[in-house]
Amino acid sequence: MRVIFATCSPDKAEELVLTLLREQLIGCGNLIPAVRSHYIWEGELCSDEEVVMLMETSAERAEAATARLKELHPYDVPKIVTLDPSDCDPDYLRWLRSVTTATA
User: Fold this and answer.
1) What pTM value is reported for the model?
2) What pLDDT is recorded for position 101?
3) Measured in Å, how far apart are the chain's first and last C-alpha atoms?
4) CATH number belonging to the domain at 2-99, selected among 3.30.70.120, 3.40.50.1000, 3.30.499.10, 3.30.1950.10
């Protein structure tokens, strides 16, 4: 299992998660709204409202999911962090693998 952590503008986050779900690249996506992000961009201090996206996928689909997320993401340099949990409920992992299996 892999957890993909990303942020996005509020107007695009749901569309990104739904696309990844439809393409079977992730099995679940949680959107945490109203996050205030502070960062430096092109030498300027910035502050924006964003949505935190937590998405789960199988280890086998993680690379494809992150590549597609980067392709679709509206930011020039999106925050996309893939986490490798040390433990996962076996039943949940079986379900996650079943819904992220690529169909030909």
Assistant:
1) 0.91
2) 82
3) 22
4) 3.30.70.120
